[in-house]
Design brief:
The structure is a homodimer. Chain A has about 200 residues and is an alpha/beta fold. Chain A is about 45% helix and about 10% strand.
Chain lengths: ~200, ~200
């Protein structure tokens, strides 16, 4: 009864996105129809533009309209510093922090026996080849502090040993703004063990 | 640095939707790009289909690909029973409940001095004309139990008095599955005052 199926199909397409359930998908679709010119038309245009132009960078796996991507092609980036991340979303988060001025390598996920993701499903061999190609002084493993992320980090580190490159990883500890009473034991243990003199 | 602006524009278009912030918009866009064929293409197709075909029903304000809409055109609906709602989303909720088999009238909002919404901004006169046209025995006011919703209900009721139609409104009380300890005083007062013999 809602739009002869067209609206239902649109709601279902929205509800398949992460973070949206049927309820929020319905609200989003109603708002889009109500604001057809101001919201719906720009959204369609932006989706078509991204679908037509955005591709993974052949060097690092970042998403961009060109390959090599803007970061790989930027001569002001430190070429000797390579940061390995699981997903493009992690790369975006690091870029927003403006804390890192080197280049990236996106693995495309993490090792997971449960999900059936093996080393051959990730861009690990391209990383090894890239490092073996020379010009890289340090590889920073910025994988997520989960069991699977750290398993992946160990695997990647082992594969990088033969290249002789220096391998580091992100510091663990208390997040800024976090409250000790709400932190898990593992984080607190890491923060105590890796404490610094002030 | 994220896709030369195209991805940013898409994230902004998503972040303008209700219920999505910048963070969930980013997650949604990443998922869409990752699952280009399975998610992004169907979403674009569904959006274009809705944008091209869905219009408000000229009789009741419901959204459909035809006007009069499927509900207005359905001969199995009780023609004498009219349910007045604020928004199409409320109509959808009532349709999902399958509790109502009459027809609808969508006002397109509620009276709000704060938001500058007056009676002339809502489909109140079309409702009065529709009822004055005859064939309607009862108008059920299914407006939201908020101050503005009830102000709107009073206004609509006053405008309907000259037509002589019977006007009713949804029952107030304890929602199924609700816990008394978490309910507001107003709801409990209504539930006590409108108690029924069992």
């Amino acid at each position: 009864m809602t739009g002869g199926g067209e609206i239902e199909r649109l709601i279902e397409a929205f509800a398949r996105l992460p973070g949206l359930g049927p309820r929020s998908a319905r609200r989003a679709v109603l708002t889009l129809i109500k604001k057809r010119d101001r919201l719906m038309a720009p959204l369609i245009a932006a989706l078509e533009e991204v679908a037509a132009t955005v591709r993974p960078c052949a060097v690092c796996g970042n998403l961009d309209t060109r390959s090599p991507c803007g970061i790989c092609a930027d001569p002001h980036r430190e070429a000797g510093l390579l940061c390995v991340v699981e997903e493009v979303g992690d790369l975006w988060a690091l870029e927003r922090s403006r804390a890192f001025r080197g280049r990236y390598h996106v693995l495309g996920g993490r090792l997971s026996a449960l999900a059936g993701v093996g080393p051959e499903d990730l861009a690990i061999e391209p990383l090894v080849e890239r490092v073996a190609g020379g010009g890289i002084d340090e590889v920073i493993l910025a994988l997520n502090p989960t069991v699977e992320g750290q398993t992946t980090a160990h695997w990647v580190r082992d594969r990088l040993v033969p290249t002789g490159v220096m391998v580091s990883q992100l510091a663990s500890g208390v997040p800024l703004g976090g409250e000790l009473g709400y932190l898990d034991d593992g984080t607190l243990t890491a923060a105590i063990r890796q404490r610094r003199r002030t």
